[in-house]
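Quick one, tokens below. Sequence please?
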């Protein structure tokens, strides 16, 4: 394979440039050099930065590398030398100057881009650090949550129902401190672990000092006797006084005032009670019984009509002072529909039993599971009424004695009835007049009155299940209105149009509500 000198290569490659601008094929035929060799020489010249035309004949179509090489090669030339160079290369000086400006602009853009990239890199670094901090916080929170999940149950078993001021045995303290420390090792904070263990941070630090669990020192404390403590002789005198024939049947609340009337004072009533209790002489005697806690209200749930009814009787005043008519009214707790009513001149279990049977027949729920709730009135607990409920398969439910809130649905219905604008404040003239008025009220209440607890649908619509379609239509109208003028709504949601779920009679109270009561 022949070897060519560098001068020979440069002379041959120069023919590719203007003014000759020969093609690779023509140059190969003229010089007797293979086309592949010429391609290799041209590629090598480009890598070295020399301006060598490509396959495109026009100088404006040269590659960026060739243009940059031309700018570098002509940078130190004078105007005359540049003109001569351009004629030799088949260029115009204006082209070289334009290429130079473009190169400078490219350098400037490159510097600006580098500056922007540097700023973006700094911002990215800040964001990365922020995300790393958040990730660490979340990992710590997750570890703490996992560590605290089992702590309340274990700590509850260790401490039981712990009350403020109660002596905590040392074994329980050790177990609780160990659980808290295990939670801390797993990633929980000390404050959170103490809170889950139902002790304060101050209690933990009092229990655990100097690397050991401290025992409760209160049982070992030496306490001085109070200066005003009753002496043994005084206590014995109080006992003998209480057990004397004169006071043997009286409580301290009667003994102390009696002695005061006679000018005698041994101790206060509370001291009498305390001394009797210390000597096991304070008990309920005879028919006296310890106070019993009031029972919880009976709770019932209704998820559909004809599952839970409430009924009661209310007075309807007549125009004659002292004379009343009696309105018997049955209400479906789920739908608030009045399912039955009658007005009579007396209260009677027989009337109530007959009305109940007619209500069941009208609602077509005879011998179906039904709970009937009422208060403890005489007609409600009459033997006739109880026998009829048993015959019809109705489960009775009663309020607690003297607690009207347990029958709140009927009480609320009676208030609505007596607060109507057309309510005759002067009383009803006759029984038929009262019955006609109640007929009109029931029709209005069941079919026209939009109940606030039913999302403002009528009891009849709720009873028949029409409320679902009605509320869905309202929701569509509201959504369309919001789409038309969203600025009037701001960030607020549309009105709640979800159907009301199951209804509960006397729902169970939470622990906080029980304590408040």
């Amino acid at each position: 394979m022949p070897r060519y000198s560098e001068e020979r290569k440069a002379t041959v490659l120069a023919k590719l440039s203007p003014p000759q601008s020969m093609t690779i094929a023509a140059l190969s035929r003229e010089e007797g050099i293979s086309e592949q060799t010429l391609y290799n020489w041209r590629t090598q010249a480009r890598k070295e930065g020399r301006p060598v035309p490509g396959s495109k004949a026009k100088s404006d179509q040269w590659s960026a590398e060739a243009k940059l090489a031309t700018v570098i090669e002509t940078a130190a030339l004078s105007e005359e030398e540049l003109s001569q160079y351009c004629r030799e290369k088949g260029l115009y000086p204006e082209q070289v100057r334009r290429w130079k400006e473009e190169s400078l602009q490219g350098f400037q853009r490159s510097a600006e881009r580098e500056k922007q990239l540097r700023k973006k890199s700094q911002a990215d670094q800040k964001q990365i650090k922020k995300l790393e901090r958040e990730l660490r916080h979340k990992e710590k929170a997750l570890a703490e949550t996992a560590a605290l999940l089992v702590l309340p149950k274990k700590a509850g078993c260790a401490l039981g129902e712990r009350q403020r001021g109660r002596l905590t045995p040392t074994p329980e303290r050790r177990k609780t401190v160990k659980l808290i420390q295990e939670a801390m090792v797993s990633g929980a904070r000390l404050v959170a672990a103490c809170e889950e263990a139902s002790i304060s941070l101050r209690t933990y630090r009092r229990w655990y000092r100097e690397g050991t669990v401290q025992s409760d020192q209160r049982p070992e404390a030496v306490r001085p006797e109070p200066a005003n403590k009753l002496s043994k002789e005084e206590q014995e005198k109080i006992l003998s006084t209480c057990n004397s024939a004169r006071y043997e049947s009286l409580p301290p609340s009667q003994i102390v005032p009696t002695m005061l009337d006679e000018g005698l004072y041994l101790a206060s009533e509370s001291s009498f009670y305390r001394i009797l209790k210390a000597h096991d002489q304070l008990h309920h005697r005879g028919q006296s019984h310890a106070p019993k806690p009031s029972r919880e209200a009976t709770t019932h749930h209704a998820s559909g009509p004809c599952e839970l009814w409430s009924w009661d009787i209310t007075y309807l005043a007549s125009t004659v002072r002292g004379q009343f008519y009696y309105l018997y009214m049955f209400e479906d707790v789920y739908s608030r529909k009045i399912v039955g009513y009658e007005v009579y001149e007396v209260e009677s279990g027989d009337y109530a039993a007959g009305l109940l049977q007619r209500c069941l027949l009208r609602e077509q729920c005879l011998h179906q599971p039904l709970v009937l709730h009422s208060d403890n009135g005489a007609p409600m607990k009459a033997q006739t009424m109880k026998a009829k409920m048993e015959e019809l398969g109705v489960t009775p439910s009663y309020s607690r004695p003297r607690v009207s809130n347990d029958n709140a649905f009927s009480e609320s219905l009676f208030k609505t009835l007596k607060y109507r604008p057309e309510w005759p404040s002067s009383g009803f003239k006759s029984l038929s007049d009262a019955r006609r008025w109640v007929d009109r009220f029931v029709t209005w209440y069941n079919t026209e009155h939009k109940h606030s607890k039913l999302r403002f649908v009528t009891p009849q619509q709720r009873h028949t299940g029409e409320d679902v379609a009605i509320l869905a239509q309202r929701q569509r109208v509201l959504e369309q209105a919001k789409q038309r003028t969203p600025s009037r709504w701001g960030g607020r949601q549309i009105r709640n149009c979800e159907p009301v779920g199951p209804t509960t009679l006397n729902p169970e109270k939470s622990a906080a509500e029980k304590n408040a009561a």
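Residues 93-149 form the longest helix (57 residues). The chain has five domains: 6-91, 150-213, 234-278, 300-464, 467-495.
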